[in-house]
Structure formats: C-alpha cells, structure tokens
UniProtKB/TrEMBL annotation:
SUPFAM superfamilies: Acid proteases
Source domain of life: Eukaryota
Residues covered by the Peptidase A1 domain: 103-434
Residues of the active site: D121, D320
Pfam families: TAXi_C (PF14541), TAXi_N (PF14543)
Protein name in the entry: Peptidase A1 domain-containing protein
Biological processes per GO annotation: proteolysis
Signal peptide: 1-24
Length: 439
C-alpha cells in the first residue's frame, strides 16, 4: 500500500512556496478591491486573499489529498434522500456542514456592516455565521449582533422556525441544535441586513452560531445557493429572480478574478443550455440530464440506466460548487477511465490517494465531453488533469462515486467547472455553460 506520506514525497512541493510566502506578506491589494453592482469576487479558500487558508501551509499534494477526502464526506451528504416530509427543510443538517466548502465570497452583515466571508454552496439552502460569544467556534472573525441596529432574533411562532432542525424556544426566540458525528452546534435563528456587493437584502434569515463542539465546524459562514425556501435564491427572489452565475478560478490561481453574478442582468447571451431537473426529495439540488460521455471523439459505452435521472432513488447528475473532483457512477467512471488509459497507449498507471489513473511520464490527454440533453461540454486538459508542480505525476482528476453510499449520483464538481461560467436560470428551468477564463 502506498501511504500518503510516500505519495507526498513523490511530488514536488514548489507550490508550497506560493502559499507560504503570500501568507507571510501583507494582504495583496487586489484582495481589498470592492465588489460592484450584483457581482461578488469569488476566492478559493486557500488563495492568498483568504485568511482561512490552512495555517500549517499544506503542500500541494497534502491539500489535494485533503480535498479529496473531504469530497468523500460531501458525497455522503449529497447521496442521502430526504425522508419525504416536505414541511421540514433543515436550515443546515449535520451532514450538510461536515464538508469543507471551497469557494468564498464577502458578505456585509448588519448595520453598520460587518464583513464576513461565506462559502458559496449550490447544494445547500442554509446561511449561517459564527457569532460573538460562540463557545467552540474555530474562527476569530465572528459576527457581533449587539453592534448591529438591524439585527433581530426570529420568534418561535415564525414560519422559519418550523424549517430548522430541533427548534427550541428560549424565551420567545427560536434556537436550534444540529449534531453531526461527534460534533454539535447550537444557533439562534436570526435576521439581519445582508449586503451582497451593492445590493441590500433586508431581514435575511440565517443561523447565528452560539456554540460548537468537535473539530469539524468550518470557520467561515455558509451562503446556501440551493433551490429550497431558506436559500439566497428564495430569500432574494424579488431581487435576483432566481438567477445567478459564477466563474470559479483554478485553485492554483493567484489571480482574484472569480465572480458570482446575481440576477438576470449581465448574464452571458452566447451560452449553451441544458434543462434543469427537479427532485422533490432533494429540493436543494440542481439536477441535469447527463446522457453520455465522450473521450476524444469516442462515445464510451455506458448503460443508459446508469445515468438516468430517478427522483425516487436520487439517481442522476448534479452540478455542485462544493465537491472538488467530479464523481461518476461506477459504470460511467470505469468506461471513461478505460478509454482514457487506452489513449495513453497503456503507459504504466499508478495511483494517488483516490485517483486511480496517474502517470509519472509526460502525457497528452484527450478531451472529455460531457453530453447533456441539448448541450455538449468539452473539457480541455486543465479541467481534466491534476499535475504535481514539477510534472512528475499527473492524474485524471475524477473518480467513481464512493461505494459506501447510495452510489447512484454523479456530481460535476468545481475542478471540472473552473474557467467556465455556469448559469443557473431557475425561472426558465435550465443550466448554461460557457468557457470563460477567470483564473
Ligand atoms: C441566543 O440564544 C441563547 C439561548 O437561547 C441566548 O442566551 C442568547 O442571548 C441568544 N443570543 C442572541 C444574540 O440573541
Ligand atoms: C441544545 O444545546 C443546549 C446547549 O448545548 C442544550 O442545553 C439543549 O438541551 C440542546 N437542545 C436540544 C433540543 O438538543
Ligand atoms: C424588516 O423587519 C422589520 C422589523 O420586523 C420591518 O419593520 C421591516 O419592514 C422589514 N423590512 C422588509 C424590507 O421586509
Ligand atoms: C493571472 O492573470 C494573468 C493575466 O491576466 C495571466 O497571465 C496569469 O497566467 C494568471 N495567473 C495564473 C496563476 O493563472
Ligand atoms: C453531442 O455530441 C454527440 C456525439 O458526438 C452528437 O451526436 C450530438 O449531436 C451532440 N449534441 C449537441 C447538442 O451538439
């Protein structure tokens, strides 16, 4: 067995210096540039603009392996079907925050504004931030409700109080607990002014975290962009018409040009669309219809049933901003991988963590095309391969869905979305994809 340490020692660590040196230096001036209109800059959580990047200065290989391990936990959450009780939409269940979100934006909360970093997450509805006095929250940056004149708690009688897990009434205010693994958080359901770029959204409902135990609570807040009733898409429906797009920069990029564009204004016109599908049992998720996959010019052999959308079992394909590496249901992954290896003229294959198709010789990869209903998206090498910095190892940056979960869901993840604009157009029930360089 190859141990992670051995794997790391096989890889060049030169990116380490990028992360390290920028950490020591003063914040890059580009980091403080303002957001404009309805556009927010999007940062990778490990970027030099992010105070949340790991303090220990993870090497490239370590961060890749860690991201992949966290993907595993996220897939578990994404693969769980709701129990069918439509009235109960958890603001954030334990499983929903076990993942480590990857891309962050700045959000101003309260009056006067306090700047918080929040992870954007298309598969969650929740919004929450750590609050003053929080016992056990890992972040030193917390939101202080006492300093905001527009802050208020949500009463027990409010409809939103029925949508959170384990609601309790402390006096008249609604609070709730969530547990996950060995960890728990306790939060007060609250409302305050959220300002996204230049747009004020009064009375935004979110969880103000008072107490956290265990080590899995991510330090930043979470901004859910899912489709459910407590998400940004629903709460700001009149402003943004359930329409937004983003371009995610490469996680290696030191540029800060990723963006989250909210609302129908300024969205790309030259863009290809595929229909958006709705699963009432997973109301947050953005399902699409993946019908086939091409490696180079060859459509690989995948039984159509393996890719079919099925609301009852949860089967199908989603776009997700929080998973890093695309996961395909096993029959699809195996078909893609086998064809990919064949194109490499059967050069010797090694593995790295959960990646099973890696090469220690230079390779030229074929394109991979996701064939959705009405839309083919052809990915260039940058979206397909992950390279160690010295080029000593290169892996196909996808994997099969983990087999310890209900493995019927394929997830188009952030690495495969980087440098594309992904447009979520809920009123017209469609998802658009266009190339856009934003690294
Ligand atoms: C949050 O809830 C706790 C327990 O109900 C309460 O003691 C605390 O004052 C609340 N905090 C705020 C900011 O409302
Ligand atoms: C929530 O957590 C608080 C403090 O940890 C505890 O006193 C309370 O009993 C919990 N409530 C529920 C419903 O679990
Ligand atoms: C926000 O809540 C306050 C107090 O409940 C209310 O007076 C105000 O009208 C609300 N604002 C909007 C825009 O709904
Ligand atoms: C940053 O942007 C510049 C110009 O826009 C480009 O030349 C450079 O390659 C980018 N850097 C990275 C790491 O992507
Ligand atoms: C996608 O590619 C397949 C196979 O090459 C082709 O048959 C199909 O017409 C294409 N679909 C679109 C919408 O371009």
């Amino acid at each position: 067995m190859r141990t992670p340490q051995l794997v790391i020692s096989l890889l060049s660590l030169s990116l380490l210096f990028l992360f390290h040196s920028s950490r020591a230096a003063t914040l890059d001036p580009r980091c403080s540039a303002a957001d404009h209109g309805s556009n927010l800059r999007v940062f990778h959580v490990n970027s030099p603009c992010s105070p949340l990047r790991p303090a220990t200065g993870l090497s490239w290989a370590e961060s890749v392996l860690r991201m992949q391990a966290e993907d595993q936990a996220r897939l578990q959450f994404l693969s769980i079907l709701a129990d069918g009780k439509k009235s109960s939409v958890p603001i954030a269940s334990g499983r929903q925050i076990i993942q480590s979100p990857t891309y962050i934006v700045r959000v101003q909360i309260g009056t006067p504004a306090q700047t918080m970093l929040m992870a954007v997450d298309t598969s969650n509805d929740a919004a929450w931030v750590p609050c003053t006095g929080c016992v056990g929250c890992p972040s030193s940056t917390v939101f202080d409700p006492a300093k905001s004149s527009s802050f208020k708690t949500v009463g027990c009688q409010a409809a939103q109080c029925q949508q959170v897990p384990n609601p309790t009434c402390g006096g008249s205010a609604c609070s709730f607990n969530m547990s996950y693994g060995g960890s728990t958080i306790a939060a007060n359901l609250s409302q305050d002014l959220f300002t996204l770029a230049a747009d004020p959204i009064p009375n935004y409902t979110f969880g103000c975290i008072q107490k956290a135990t265990g080590s899995s609570v991510p330090p930043q807040g979470l901004l859910g962009l899912g489709r459910g009733p407590l998400s940004l898409v629903s709460q700001a429906q009149s402003l943004y018409k359930s329409t937004f797009s983003y371009c995610l920069p490469s996680f290696k990029s030191l540029n800060f040009s990723g963006s989250l564009r909210l609302g129908p204004v300024g969205q790309p016109i030259r863009i290809k669309f595929t229909p958006l599908l709705k699963n009432p049992r997973r109301s947050s998720l953005y399902y699409v219809n993946l019908v086939g996959i091409r490696v180079g010019s060859k459509v690989v052999d995948i039984p159509p049933a393996a890719l079919a959308f099925n609301p009852t079992t949860g089967a199908g394909t989603i776009f997700d901003s929080g998973t890093v590496f695309t996961r395909l249901v096993a029959p699809a992954y195996v078909a893609v991988r086998d064809e990919f290896r064949k194109r490499m003229k059967n050069a010797p294959v090694t593995s790295l963590g959960g990646f099973d198709t890696c090469y220690s010789v230079p390779i030229v990869a074929p394109t991979i095309t996701f064939m959705f209903s009405g839309m083919n998206v052809t990915l260039p090498q940058d979206n397909i391969l992950i390279h160690s910095t010295a080029g000593s190892i290169t892996c196909l940056a996808m994997a099969a869905a983990p087999d310890n979960v209900n493995s019927v869901l394929s997830v188009i993840a952030s690495m495969q979305q980087q440098n594309h604009r992904i447009l979520f157009d809920v009123p017209n029930s469609r998802v658009g994809v266009a190339r856009e360089t934003c690294s």
